[in-house]
Amino acid sequence: MASVLRTSAHIRAAVRTKRSFSTYHALRASTAASASSKAPTERAYFTNEPSGPSIKTAIPGPKSQQKIAELNQVFDTRALNMLVDYSSSVGNYYAQIASIPVGYNNPNLLEATKSPEMASALINRPALGNFPGQDWAHILESGLLRVAPKGMNQVFTSTTGSDANETAYKAAFMYHAQQKRGGPEVEFTKDEISSTMSNQSPGSPNYSIMSFESAFHGRLFGSLSTTRSKPIHKLDIPAFDWPKAPFPSLKYPLEDFASENAQEEQRCLQEAERIIKEFHNPVTAVVVEPVQSEGGDNHASPAFFQGLREITKRHNVLLIVDEVQTGLGATGKFWAHDHWNLQTPPDIVTFSKKAQAAGYYYGNPALRPNKPYRQFNTWMGDPARALIFRAILQEIERLNLVENTAATGDYLFSGLERLAKQYPGQFQNLRGKGQGTFIAWDSPQRDAILKKGKQVGINIGGCGETAVRLRPMLIFQQHHADILLENLEKIVKS
C-alpha cells in the first residue's frame, strides 16, 4: 500500500455520472500506449481532499490506544496497524492492503448504496445457488462480466480471495476427473461414491495444484497448501502433498542483467515442467500470481509467463492466474496478465481486493461441474458486493483510472530511480517499471522505514524479508507521488 494519512473531514457530494462503462476490450485499447505517456494533467479527483498529511501525535495516539485496549477485550488486535475513522476519511487518506480502489467516501459509490437494487440486495440477501434474484443475470452482465478477461464469458462469485482460489481449485480437480473419466456425461462408479466418504481414492483422488516458492494464495485450508510466503501462515495446519516450483529471482536493473535473467527464467520453467511430468500426485493445475505480492513483490517477464502457458497447454494442465491483488488496473492494465500478450488466455482468473467482490472467471464450459451442488455454498458471493463492483467500474471509466495509474506509476518510478541513485543502500532492486504503481524495492532498514513513514504521514507496507511495497488506490496522482517521494527522502536522510 502507499497513501497519505487522513487529515480532514467528509467530502461533499457530487453529481453521479450517467456515462455508461465501456467494455473491458475498450479499456485495453485506451491504455495500450499509456506506459510511455506522461503523467496526466493534475485535476484532483476529490476536491475536499487535504493537500498533505498532518500528524498531531505519535501513531497510535492516546485516543487510539484507549480504543485499541477496549477492542482487545473482545477481538484479537495483535496484527492491528492502526484504528481508522472511516467516516472522516477522504480519497487517498488513507489506503489499505491493495483493497480500496476509488477512494474513501467516494460520492458515486455512496450514491450507488442508495439504490433500490442495493437495498433489496442487503436486506434480502439471496442464497444464490438456490434462490437468486430475478435481476442477478443483469447485475452480472452490467458489472462483473463487462470486464471479464479476454477469452472468458462466465463467472463464479465467492466471498474472499482465498475462497475464490479454493473454488477455482475445486473446478480444476473436477474438470480433470471428468476428462479422465471420459467426459461429463459419464456417471460416477459405485467405488468412487463409497470411497470418497472415507476420504480415499478413487473417489477422493490424490490430485495436486502446483504453486511457486514465495507464493501467497490465501489462508483457507486448500489455498493454504499453495501459500509459500511465510511459515506463520501455515504452522500447525495439516497440508496437502502438493508441489512447489521455483519462481524466478531476477537481478536489477533488468537492462543490466538481461542474459542472466533469461537463464534464470528458463531454469524455473524447466523445473516447473519436470514437476508437472514427474510429481507423484498428478498436477491438475498451476496457480501463479502476476507479481508475488506477499512473498516479496517478485516479478517475472512476459516471456516467463508465455513459457508457463505453453507448458500447461502441452501437458493438459490448467493455468490459474491469481489476480486478487493485481486486478482492476493496479499494474496500469485492467488485468495484469494483459502485460504478457499470451497466445491463448489462462483457463481461470481469480479476483478480489480492489473489486470489493470475489470469484473467478472462465471460458471453457466444461469447467462448469457436470452436476448441481458440486460447486456450491449458501451465499456463493453477494449481490450487494457485485453492485459495488459495478459502481467502481463506472468510476474507473469516468476518471480514466487505469490510464491514470499507468502514467502516475511511470512518474513515481522515475522519482524512485532518482532516490535510488542518491541513496543506493536504501533503495535496492527497484522493480515494477511499466507496471503502474505496483512498485517495490528492498531496504536493509525496511521495518524502520515503515515505522518512520507513519510518523510523517505516509502509510506504506512491507512484504517478504526486506521489501517495501506500494499499493496505492487507482486515484493516486502525481501530487500524491510528490508527497510520498518527498517524505521517503526525509526518512532515508534521517
What are the main properties of this structure?
494 residues, alpha/beta, Aspartate Aminotransferase, domain 1, Aspartate Aminotransferase, domain 2, seven-stranded mixed beta sheet, five-stranded antiparallel beta sheet, 10% strand
Task: Please give a structural write-up.
With 494 residues, this protein is of the alpha/beta class. The protein folds into two domains: 2-107 and 400-493, Aspartate Aminotransferase, domain 1 (Alpha-Beta Complex), CATH 3.90.1150; 126-381, 3-Layer(aba) Sandwich (Aspartate Aminotransferase, domain 2), CATH 3.40.640.10. Helices cover 35% and strands 10% of the residues. It has 15 helices and twelve strands. It has helices spanning 24-30, 62-72, 107-112, 116-123, 136-142, 161-181, 190-196, 221-224, 231-234, 258-278, 302-314, 383-398, 401-422, 446-456, 478-493, and strands spanning 2-4, 154-158, 208-212, 244-245, 283-288, 318-322, 348-351, 358-362, 428-431, 440-442, 458-463, 467-469. The strands form two sheets. Strands 2-8-7-6-5-3-4 form a seven-stranded mixed sheet, sandwiched between helices. Strand 7 and strand 8 form a beta hairpin. Helix 5 (136-142) runs parallel beside helix 12 (383-398) and helix 13 (401-422) runs parallel beside helix 15 (478-493). The two termini are 22 Å apart.
